[in-house]
Amino acid sequence: MQVTETQADGLKRAFRVVVSAADLDAKADARLNELKGQVKLNGFRPGKVPTAHLKRVYGKSVYSEVIEQTVNETNGKIVEERGFKLALQPKVKLSDGQQGETLLDGGKDLAYDVELEILPKIELGNFKEISVEKPVVEVTDAEVDETVQRIADANRPFSPKEGPAAEGDRVTIDFTGYVDGEKFQGGEGQDIDVLIGSKGFIPGFEEQLVGASAGENRTLSVTFPEAYAAKELAGKAASFEVTVKSVDAAGAVALDDEFAKTLGQESLEQLKETVKGRIVQEHAGAARQKVKRALLDALDAQHQFEVPAGLVEQEFNGVWSRVNEDLAGQGRTFADEGTSEEEARNDYLKIAERRVRLGLVLAEIGERNNIQVSDEEVTRAVVERARQFPGQEQQVWEYYRRTPEALASVRAPLFEEKVVDFLLELANVTEKKVTKEELYKEEEDEKAA
Fold first, then answer.
1. Which of 46, 96, 123, 253 gets the highest tally of CB atoms within 10 A of its CB?
2. Percent of the chain clearing pLDDT 90 (strictly above)
3. pLDDT at 175 over 60
4. CA–CA separation, 129 and 132 (whole Å)
C-alpha cells in the first residue's frame, strides 16, 4: 500500500492511496474461504464448494465488500498515524477508469484520492482572567401580588349578562370571514369565546364587539397584520359576518384561602410563596442566560483560530434555511428587515463561524477536564420531554430510544451547561443588582426586532 500526501493547506489534507491488486486478491480469497463453510449451493456438500466456483458466484460482491473495507481501514490508518481528529467524514474519489465494475473482477490495483478536513489544535485561554456580571433581581411583594392577581383574573367566573358587551366581557360568537368577497381557509368558527380587551384576535376585531348584544348580527371590518402567519392573508382587508350568541360578564374573585385551594394550595400565603418561587426561578433563568452569553463572548475573544469550513457550511445551511422559512412564513423579504440577502448571508456566516468555534472550544474544555453527561442524566431529560406530551409519553420515549440523533440532541445541551458551570467556577463572577425591566430589556429588544 502506498500513501502519498498531495495537499496540506490549513485544515485540509489530501492523500493519494494505491493498494496493490495482490493485496486485494489476498483479502478476497480469504473472504471466499470464510464463505465455504457458510453457503449452501446445489450439488455441493457443505464446506466443499470449490473456491473458483464461489468466485464465479460471489466474486463481485466479495470484491465490493473488500474494496469498501480496505478504503475504510486505510483512511483510519492515515488518521491514526498522523494524530488527526476529523471534522467531517473523509471524501473518497476513485481514480479515472476505476468507476463502475472495473475493480470487481479482481486483478487490478485500487487507486483513489481521499480529502480530509481536520479539527484545529486549540490552545485554551486562562479562564480565571474572565470576568462576568451576574444580574440579581429582588422579588418584591408587589410583583408577587401582581402575578397572583393575574392568576385570579384568568380564573374569574363568568355569568350571563343583560345588555350590551363592554370591555372585559366574554362574547361567544359564530363568524365567517371574507377576503375580496370570498371565504378563506380558516375563516369560519362556531361557539368561539372572545374576551374583549385581551388582544387575542386580529387588531380591531374585539373592539367592534363592544356594544353588541346576544342575538345580534354584525359585520366587522379588519386588516390582517403585515406579519400575519398565513402569508396569503398578510396585509389584506377582510370582513367578518358575526353572530353574537351570548354575552357574559366576569365576576369578582376573592383573593383568600378558598381561592388558593381551588389551585391546589392550602392557603393564600402558600399560593404567594409558590408564585414567588416560580418568579425567582424565572429571574434566575434569565440571569443565567445573560451570564452565559457574557461568558461565551469572553471565550470567543480568547480563542481565535481557523475553523473547519465544512462544519461552518453545515451550521450556516441550517441557520439560513430557518431564516428563509421564517421570512416565507411571514410573507416578508430581506428588504422588509432593513437589509439585503447578501448582507444577511454575510452576517449569518459570521454567526455560524462563531457557533462552530465556540462549540469546538467547549468540546475541548470538556474533554480535557473529563466533563461527561451520564446515561442517567440523559434519561431524566428524555423523561422530562416526554411529560410535555400527555398521553404520548411512551411514543416519545420510544422515538428517542430508537433515534441516536435525537438522543444526541438531548445530550449536547446538557454537556454544554456542565462546561459552562465548570467555567463559571473558575471565572470572576460578580453580582449586580438590577431591576426586572433591566433584566429582561435585552430579551424584549430582541422580540421587538
1. 253
2. 74
3. yes
4. 10
